[in-house]
Amino acid sequence: MSSTSAEKARVIKANLMLQAKVGSGTIEEEKIQKMEKTMEEAKVDFAPMANIFLNELAVAISQARTMTDATSKSTDAVIAAMTEPVMQIKANAAMFDYQLVGNLANIVLNFLENIEGIDKTVIEIVDAHQKTLSIIVKSKMMGTGGEYGQKIEAELKDACKRYFTKRGTEAVFVE
């Protein structure tokens, strides 16, 4: 696959005013350790943040269910509406020691990024994901979830793989 000059990556130098605000150079090791300690000791509850994103996902799923004769533009908008909260959950879960939540969100994010449209099965998979994450967050199941977490991850991956197999496309999961 050849790329035109318009498709090639460009390096954009930082604005000098921005650099003046941010500064340059390295951060002292002592400050880094102090920041890491503060982050580790912070007792922030992930559940309220996660619930905001899970509610956004529920609304997007509801919108997807009510789509009739959707144009590709509205389909893309609904896929984007489902993708955004999943992306936010994935980005924040590990920071609060919810690795299982982050792993599951990663699987569904990958799924949503590879679908070509919305159908009943897509909605069922994303809805099951939303309900599962809601239960995990409500029960404050932190960490990987152990053997139970591995089974949930495997089942979600299998559901996504079955979806792509039925459509004759290859499922690609980024770990």
Summarize this structure briefly.
The chain has 175 residues and is mainly alpha-helical. The protein has 7 helices and no strands. Helix 6 (120-138) packs antiparallel against helix 7 (146-166).
- Quote the CATH topology of the domain at 47-166: Four Helix Bundle (Hemerythrin (Met), subunit A)
Kindly report how far apart the N and C termini lie.
Answer: 25 Å
Tally of helical segments:
7
Give the percentage of residues in beta strands.
under 5%
- CATH class label of the domain at 47-166: Mainly Alpha
Unreliable stretches, pLDDT < 50, 5 or more residues? Answer: none
The backbone outline, from C-alpha atoms, is globular
Structural class: mainly alpha
* Share of helical residues: 55-70%
Q: Give the CATH architecture of the domain at 47-166.
A: Up-down Bundle
Largest β-sheet summary:
none
Average predicted confidence as pLDDT: 85
Rg is 20 Å
How many strands? Answer: 0
Q: Which terms summarize this structure?
A:
7 helices; 175 residues; mainly alpha; Four Helix Bundle (Hemerythrin (Met), subunit A); single chain
Describe this structure in words.
Helix content is 67%, strand content 0%. The protein is mainly α. Helix 5 (99-114) runs parallel beside helix 7. The two termini are 25 Å apart.
